[in-house]
Amino acid sequence: MKRVWIIFAALIALCLAMIVHLSKAHAQGVQVPCDRLKTMLDRLAQNYGEFVAVTGTLTNGKQIIITLSASGSFSFVETDGNVGCMVAAGEKAELDKGI
C-alpha cells in the first residue's frame, strides 16, 4: 500500500511540475494543443491506443487526465470538463508491476 502512495505522490508532483511549465509556456506565447475533451480522448484512443488511467483534481480546480497505452505511450491532458489541453506526451511509460 505504501508503494501506491509513493507512486501517487510522484504523479501529483509531475502534474504540478507540468502546470508550472505550462504556465511559463503560456506566458511566453507557446501554443498548447486544445480540443473538446471527448474529441481529444477519442483521438488518443484511435491513434495511439491510449486509455484513461488516472484522473485527479488540480489545485486550480481543473482536472488532469493521464492516458496510457499497452505500448507505453502516455499523455497528460488538463481539462475544465469540456475542453482538454495536451500538457505532455511521451513514450516508454512503465507501471510498477509490484502494486
Task: Summarize this structure briefly.
The chain is of the alpha+beta class.
Key terms for this structure?
single chain, 99 residues, alpha+beta, five-stranded antiparallel beta sheet, 2 helices
What does this structure look like?
- This protein has 99 residues and is an alpha+beta fold.
- It has one domain.
- Helix content is 38%, strand content 30%.
- The chain has 2 helices and 5 strands; from the N terminus they run H-E-H-E-E-E-E.
- It has a 5-stranded antiparallel sheet.
- Strand 3 and strand 4 form a beta hairpin.
- The relative contact order is 0.19.
- The model has no long low-confidence stretch (mean pLDDT 77).
Outline the secondary-structure elements.
Elements: H1 2-27, E1 34-36, H2 37-48, E2 51-57, E3 63-68, E4 74-79, E5 83-90
Antiparallel strand pairs: 1-5, 2-3, 3-4, 4-5
The tally of helices reads 2
Give me the secondary-structure category. alpha+beta
The percent range for strand residues is 25-35%
Q: Indicate the radius of gyration in whole angstroms.
A: 14 Å
- What number of structural domains do the residues give? 1
Mean of all residue-level pLDDT scores:
77
**Strands ordered across the widest β-sheet:** 1-5-4-3-2
Regions with pLDDT < 50 over 5+ consecutive residues? none
How far the N terminus sits from the C terminus, by CA atoms, comes to 8 Å
Quaternary state of the chains? single chain
Fraction of residues in H or I helices = 25-40%
Biggest beta sheet summary? 5 strands, antiparallel
